[in-house]
Amino acid sequence: MNLGWFEDSNNCYFEYRNKCRNGNGCTTPKNCIEKVIDTLEMLFYGYGVKPHYTLFWIMFSVLSFSTIFRRKKGIRKLIREEKLEKNTSNTVEVTTLLREVPLTFKDPFLFSLATFTSGFASFLQPNIDYKADEKYTRYAIIERILGSVLIALLIAAISKTYLIR
User: Fold this and answer.
1) What does the pLDDT look like over 50-98, one tens digit per residue?
2) I want to staple 153 with a disulfide (CB 3.0 to 4.6 A). Which of 45, 46, 50, 97 is the partner?
3) 28 DSSP assignment
4) Which helix (H) or strand (E) holds 47?
5) Contact 118, 106 (CB under 8 A)
């Protein structure tokens, strides 16, 4: 019988995993590692049945990294300008110029969001390039890796929670 009580099933699974995690003691190194991994699974994606946990971590990450880039002035905003020049031999030469402009309040957030999603930067603002300063490149790399992991967890949680219905 299929009653369609998916939310109740997800809640029962979540509570079951919490009770198992809380009931396991750290008697051996293997138990300790399992408990740490189980705790991370609960925190970052709610055992696959709470996608809003992952959404929280995504928002927290983007806002945290944008705050780092804003406070330390770790990025530069470059506007791309293309100039077309027609030669006498009916060829067109395209010259791309990058002009640095001052940052606005939203620019560190847009840079952080583009870095987090890493493949979708051209959809956000196609004529503006953001460049991280050399000191802050490792923050951008960490954010890009974290973005890949959290987006994968979000897809897993959404597919387990909503798409099974």
Assistant:
1) 888 888 999 999 999 999 888 877 888 888 887 777 777 778 787 888 8
2) 45
3) S
4) none
5) no
Alpha-carbon distance of 164 to 160, in angstroms, equals 6
Report yes or no: 165 and 6 within 8 Å, Cβ to Cβ.
yes
* pLDDT tens-place string over residues 98-119: 888 888 888 888 888 888 887 5
Instruction: State CA 106 to chain mean position distance.
Output: 17
Domain that holds residue 74: 55-154
Q: Are residues 37 and 60 in the same domain?
A: no
Q: What is the pTM of this model?
A: 0.70
The structural domain count of the chain equals 2
CA 157 from centroid of its chain's CA atoms: 15
> Position 140: which residue type?
A
